[in-house]
Inverse folding.
C-alpha cells in the first residue's frame, strides 16, 4: 500500500474513532434510527447480490422494504455455522471481488469446524474505529490514552491476529500511542511471567481460558510477578471464581469483549463489569427460544446476531452458538446501549496428558487448524488422562485415511509421547437440546453422543 493511501486511511480511522466514543451515550431513539437505516441498507444489498437472501425473500413473498425494524427479522430464516461452512458462496455478495474484501477464518472452537467469511476492506477499518468504544473503558481504568504497553497471548493463526495484521497494514499506530508485544499462547507460563516482568505491560490480551489457567497455575506454584493493571479477554469464558482470583490475588481489572469473526464487535464490558453493552447500531442481537421465538428480558435463550456493517459476507439471523439473557433497565455507567445480563458462552477445557501436563483444548485445535478446515464437526472424548478419542465429521469429498493421518501428525506436536489418540470418523455428532456442542467431554458425558 502506498504511503499516501496509508496516511489517508489513518486520518479517516482516527477521526471516525473520535465519534465512536460518543455513540454508547446516544439516545435510544437515535441508536434505533441508525440501526434501522443500516438494516434497510444491508437487506437491500443482500436481495440484489447475495443468493441465499434473494431466494429466502422470494420464497416468503418478501421484499427488503417489508423488513422495517429488528422485530421484523422473525420473518427471515435462522442460519448457523454449519450452513455457512457447507455453502459459503450462498452468503457472499457478488459485489465484492478480489482486492475489495479479506477472507477470515473462524476458529471452529464451537466444534462445528472452521468457516470462511469475507470482510469488506471498509468494514474492517470501521471495526478498528468502533473499538474506541471499549478502549475508552480501558483508558479510564488505566488513566492514560498514550504510551500504552500491551502484551498479547493470541495465537499467530488466530482471527484476532489476522484482523490486526490487515488493519495495521492500512493504518499507522505510532509507538508513542501504543506498543504491543506477542507471546505464543502455547509458551510455558514461566515464559509468560518472564515476559510480563521484562515488558511491564499496562494490559494483557488473551482468551478467557488462558487467563484463568495462567492465574491458577502461578498461584499453585507460588510465582510472584508484576501484574498488569488490566487484563482483557474474549473468545471464551472466565468463571466467576477465576475472575475473583484475578482481582483479589493480583489486583487486576478484568474486562471482556464479545465478538466473533462472523459478526464483528457485538458488545463490551464497562467499568461496572455487570454485563455486555451491545453495539446495536452495528448489529441486531436477538435472544430466542428453541423454536426461534424472541424471549423476554431476563430469560435465557440462544444468541442470534445480524451483522449490519459487513456487506461482503452477509449474515442475518446468525446463530452464535452462545446462550445469554437481556438485562432489564439500563447500566449505572450512563451508557444507553442495552445490556446482555449474562453470557453463557463457550468455555475452553483442559486436556490431561499422560506426562502430567495440562493443555488447553484450543492449543490442540490451533495446531490442527489446517486439517480441521476439512471437517464439519469434531469433539474430543478424554477417556482417561492420556487417552483420547477424537470424533470427527469429515467434509464432503474428504479422504478419510488422509484426514486421520494428518490429524495424528499435527496432534503429535502438542500431545506427549505417552498419549494414546484414536481418530473416529463419523457421519454426525448429535447437538444437545441446549444447542451447545461441548468440544471436550469425559466418559460420563459421552454416553449420549452416539446418534
Amino acid at each position: 500500500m502506498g504511503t499516501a493511501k496509508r496516511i489517508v486511511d489513518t486520518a479517516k480511522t482516527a477521526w471516525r474513532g473520535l465519534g465512536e466514543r460518543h455513540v454508547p451515550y446516544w439516545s435510544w431513539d437515535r441508536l434505533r434510527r441508525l440501526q434501522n437505516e443500516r438494516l434497510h441498507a444491508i437487506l437491500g444489498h443482500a436481495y440484489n447480490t447475495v443468493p441465499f437472501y434473494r431466494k429466502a425473500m422470494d420464497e416468503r413473498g418478501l421484499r427488503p422494504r417489508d423488513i422495517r425494524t429488528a422485530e421484523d427479522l422473525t420473518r427471515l430464516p435462522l442460519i448457523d455455522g454449519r450452513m455457512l461452512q457447507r455453502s459459503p458462496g450462498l452468503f457472499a455478495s457478488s459485489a465484492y471481488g478480489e482486492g475489495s474484501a479479506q477472507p477470515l477464518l473462524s476458529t471452529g472452537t464451537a466444534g462445528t469446524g472452521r468457516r470462511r467469511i469475507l470482510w469488506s476492506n471498509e468494514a474492517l477499518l470501521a471495526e478498528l474505529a468502533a473499538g474506541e468504544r471499549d478502549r475508552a473503558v480501558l483508558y479510564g481504568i488505566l488513566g492514560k490514552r498514550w504510551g500504552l504497553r500491551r502484551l498479547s497471548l493470541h495465537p499467530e493463526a488466530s482471527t484476532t491476529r489476522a484482523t490486526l495484521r490487515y488493519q495495521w497494514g492500512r493504518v499507522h499506530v505510532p509507538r508513542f500511542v501504543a506498543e504491543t508485544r506477542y507471546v505464543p499462547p502455547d509458551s510455558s507460563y514461566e515464559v509468560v511471567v518472564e515476559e510480563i516482568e521484562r515488558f511491564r505491560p499496562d494490559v494483557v490480551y488473551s482468551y478467557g481460558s488462558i487467563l484463568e489457567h495462567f492465574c491458577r497455575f502461578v498461584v499453585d506454584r507460588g510465582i510472584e510477578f508484576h501484574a498488569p493493571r488490566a487484563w482483557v479477554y474474549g473468545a471464551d469464558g472466565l468463571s466467576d471464581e477465576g475472575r475473583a482470583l484475578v482481582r483479589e490475588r493480583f489486583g487486576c481489572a478484568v474486562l471482556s469483549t464479545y465478538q466473533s469473526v462472523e459478526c464483528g464487535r457485538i458488545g463490551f464490558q464497562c467499568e461496572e463489569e455487570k454485563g455486555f453493552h451491545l453495539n446495536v447500531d452495528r448489529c441486531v442481537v436477538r435472544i430466542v427460544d428453541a423454536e426461534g421465538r424472541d424471549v423476554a428480558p431476563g430469560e435465557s435463550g440462544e444468541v442470534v446476531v445480524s451483522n449490519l456493517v459487513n456487506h461482503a459476507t452477509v449474515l442475518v439471523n446468525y446463530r452464535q452458538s452462545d446462550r445469554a439473557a437481556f438485562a432489564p433497565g439500563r447500566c449505572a455507567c450512563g451508557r444507553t446501549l442495552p445490556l446482555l445480563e449474562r453470557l453463557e458462552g463457550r468455555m475452553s477445557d483442559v486436556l490431561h496428558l499422560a506426562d502430567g501436563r495440562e493443555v488447553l483444548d484450543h492449543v490442540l485445535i490451533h495446531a490442527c487448524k489446517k486439517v480441521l478446515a476439512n471437517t464439519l464437526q469434531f469433539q474430543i472424548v478424554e477417556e482417561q488422562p492420556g487417552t483420547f478419542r477424537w470424533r470427527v465429521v469429515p467434509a464432503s469429498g474428504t479422504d478419510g485415511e488422509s484426514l486421520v493421518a494428518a490429524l495424528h501428525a499435527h496432534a503429535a506436536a502438542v500431545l506427549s509421547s505417552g498419549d494414546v489418540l484414536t481418530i473416529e470418523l463419523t457421519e454426525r455428532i448429535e447437538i444437545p437440546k441446549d444447542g451447545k456442542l461441548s468440544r471436550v467431554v469425559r466418559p460420563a458425558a459421552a454416553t449420549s453422543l452416539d446418534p
In short: The CA atoms of residues 22 and 415 lie 48 Å apart. The two ends are 52 Å apart (CA to CA).
